[in-house]
Amino acid sequence: MNTYHANCTNQLIQEIKATPGEYLPALLNIVRVFRESITLKPAEGSFRQGWEEAMSGETMPVDELWAGIGNDE
Q1: Could you list the residue range(s) of the whole structural domain that residue 29 is in?
Q2: Is the CB of residue 31 less than 8 Å from the CB of residue 23?
């Protein structure tokens, strides 16, 4: 474990210890939801969802997909 990782881990542990016990279940839920939100989904599931969206008409014109990204629009 590198120093940065160890430092973050120690800070997280200190924050957990400083959290009142009655709020620990909520904190645990926050951490789980965060981890799930940043974890990549398997490609098969992502493809399946995209295919279902495309087949049900949940699409956008290509020229709208990147509108406002990388420019000042």
Answers
A1: 3-65
A2: no
Over residues 34-46, the pLDDT tens digits come to 998 888 778 888 8
Question: pTM score, two decimals?
Answer: 0.51
Pair of tokens at residue 6:
């160890």
Reported as a pLDDT band with limits 50, 70 and 90, residue 63 is: confident
Could you tell me if residue 28 is inside a domain?
yes
Provide the 3-class DSSP secondary structure of residue 20: coil
Distances from the Cα of 56 to the Cα of 9, 41, 45, 52, 59, angstroms: 44, 21, 17, 6, 8
